[in-house]
TrEMBL record, chain A:
Keywords: Amino-acid transport, ATP-binding, Cell membrane, Membrane, Nucleotide-binding, Transport. It is found in: Cell membrane. One of its GO terms (cellular component) is plasma membrane. It is a peripheral membrane protein. Pfam families: ABC_tran. Belongs to the ABC transporter superfamily. GO terms for molecular function: ABC-type amino acid transporter activity; ATP binding; ATP hydrolysis activity. This is Amino acid ABC transporter ATP-binding protein. PANTHER family: AMINO ACID IMPORT ATP-BINDING PROTEIN, GLUTAMATE_ASPARTATE IMPORT ATP-BINDING PROTEIN GLTL. Its main location: membrane.
Automatic annotation (TrEMBL), chain B:
The keyword Amino-acid biosynthesis does not apply. It is found in: Cell membrane. InterPro entries: AA_ABC_transptr_permease_3TM, ArtM/GltK/GlnP/TcyL/YhdX-like, MetI-like, MetI-like_sf. It comes from Paucilactobacillus suebicus DSM 5007 = KCTC 3549. Its main location: membrane. This is Amino acid ABC transporter permease. GO terms for molecular function: L-cystine transmembrane transporter activity. Keywords: Amino-acid transport, Cell membrane, Membrane, Transmembrane, Transmembrane helix, Transport. Residues 17-215 form the ABC transmembrane type-1 domain.
Length: 244, 231
């Protein structure tokens, strides 16, 4: 389980995360919704320790982190292995082949043998239907394909949680569907996930729980049914705003 | 005339093999190492306790000063100071050593800016993606950033190397018997400046062409993954 207590993150004069208290359950998919600038990316990046909030307690598995202290490199690396990250713009390593992109972490971080890492990578590539792309370079793939590879890259590290930051926002609808299908499969397999998305329909289908963030504060934390069928005025307004 | 060409060309070429090429290659290798080190320190953010942070800042300041100094003064003047000037301060080098020191420091200053620029040109998101899978700073640097930065830095680095090969002709002024010096000496005997300086120019061009070919080969190798417009 991931648990945040009184987490605060400030940029200069801006309160990006304002007293965040939340838990993300194992084997569940939590979807984070909220308007632009709400602090969704900041929240995910804090879980992966790409950002360090100024204060608050972060518990993940057996690790307990006090954000107000300086974190040891060892702890940071450990937490990053526990939390796979999938970025909006996928950020594959352009100079490495697809296979190398996926095995880079397992070989050099987890110190797996090349053979083992490649066997696992091949399995993941099959899972997302891209095994024939293994020797190509990222620039030779479509955005949707690259994003599926970046999901494989995260999965190859065997993280406890996978964090998705708007994984389909940069994609055309058809390519988006390919990626969302992979996420639905993962949800079915009970992979623990935290997903930031602007796709309301997808949120409704995949989420076990919804967190609504606005101005760095959690305005809602509950079930899908509650969120969509008994929305507060503000959430109603947000949902209406997402329609056209 | 034919006789002059046949007898003097090997002499000049030999001076190139003996002095010009070693000066250029050794200085470039040392300069490159200085450049990478300097660039890495200058892009780093000081960490640790307040003492190490202050020392680190001092080092950064010193390296900025070094880069500024060597880019803002003529190479010839640098050579003169290190070879003719430093002995007055009790520091004496052989001409060849003085040449290597000067050329290395000069190349290091220029190339450090090239490398710093190349590293900064790699998007922040590449660092983040690599960090997010748990790689250490060193791993990110050596496995993800350097290979991409090298591709960017290759053309300007080649320029520096080719420039260095030609600049070694300045070493003649600190008594090193490199190609240009030798062609001057031969000219003093046979009074054929046009011929002698043309020969030496052709040999410089030959050496630099080899480097250009090497550059194209390396560019191809490091760019395999890039989609090139028009391909
Ligand atoms: N590095 C930074 N420096 C200063 N302010 C920042 C920085 N990163 C984010 N912010 C600010 O923090 C707030 C939250 O940003 P964040 O990226 O987390 O929002 P978001 O919910 O992910 O938005 P979006 O839906 O547009 O991605 C924004 O107001 C943003 O301007
Ligand atoms: Mg965001």
């Amino acid at each position: 389980m991931i648990r945040l207590d009184h987490v605060d993150k400030q940029y200069m004069d801006h309160h990006a995360l304002d007293d965040i208290n939340v838990t993300f359950e194992d084997n569940q998919t939590t979807v984070i919704l909220g308007p632009s600038g709400a602090g969704k990316s900041t929240l995910l990046r804090s879980l992966n320790l790409l950002e360090q909030p100024q204060s608050g307690i972060y518990q993940i598995g057996d690790e307990k982190i006090d954000f107000s202290k300086e974190l040891s490199t060892k702890l940071v690396l450990r937490v990053r292995q526990l939390t796979g990250m999938v970025f909006q713009s996928w950020n594959l390593f352009p100079h490495l082949t697809i296979m190398q992109n996926i095995t880079e972490g397992p070989i050099y971080v987890l110190k797996q043998s090349k053979k083992l890492a490649e066997a696992r990578a091949l399995q993941l590539l099959q899972q997302v239907g891209l095994e024939e792309a293994k020797d190509r370079y990222p620039s030779q793939l479509s955005g949707g394909q690259q994003q599926r590879i970046s999901i494989c890259r995260a999965l190859a590290m065997d993280p406890e949680y996978i964090l998705f930051d708007e994984p389909t926002s940069a994609l055309d609808p058809e390519l988006e569907a390919q990626v969302l299908r992979v996420l639905l499969d993962l949800a079915k397999m009970k992979q623990s996930m935290v997903v930031v998305t602007h796709n309301i329909e997808f949120a409704r289908r995949v989420a076990d729980k919804i967190v609504f963030l606005e101005n760095g504060k959690i305005e809602f934390d509950g079930t899908v049914d509650e969120f969509f069928n008994h929305p507060t005025d503000r959430i109603h307004e947000f949902l209406t705003g997402m329609q056209f | 005339m034919w006789h002059i060409i046949v007898t003097s060309t090997p002499q000049i070429f030999w001076a190139g093999i003996k002095f010009t090429i070693p000066l250029a290659v050794i200085s470039f290798v040392i300069g490159f190492i200085i450049a990478v080190g300097t660039a890495l320190v200058r892009i780093s953010t000081p960490k640790g306790n307040s003492v190490t942070r202050s020392l680190w800042r001092l080092l950064k300041w010193f390296l900025s000063f070094y880069v500024w100094l060597f880019r803002s003064t003529p190479l010839l003047v640098q050579l003169f100071i290190i070879f003719f000037g430093l002995p007055n301060a009790g520091i004496q080098f052989s001409a060849f050593t003085a040449g290597i020191i000067t050329f290395s420091l000069n190349t290091g200053a220029y190339c450090s800016e090239t490398i710093r620029g190349a590293i900064s040109s790699i998007p922040e998101s590449q660092w983040e993606a690599a960090y997010s899978i748990g790689m250490t700073y060193r791993q990110v640097l050596f496995r993800i950033i350097f290979p991409q930065a090298l591709r960017v830095a290759l053309p300007p680095l080649s320029n520096s190397f080719i420039g260095l090969v030609k600049d070694t002709s300045l070493a003649s002024s600190i008594t090193i018997l490199e190609m240009f010096m030798v062609s001057q000496q031969i000219t003093a005997k046979n009074y054929e400046p046009l011929l002698m300086y043309t020969i030496v120019a052709v040999i410089y061009a030959l050496f630099c062409s080899v480097l250009t070919i090497l550059q194209h080969y390396l560019e191809k190798r490091t760019s395999r993954y890039v989609k090139v417009a028009g391909e």
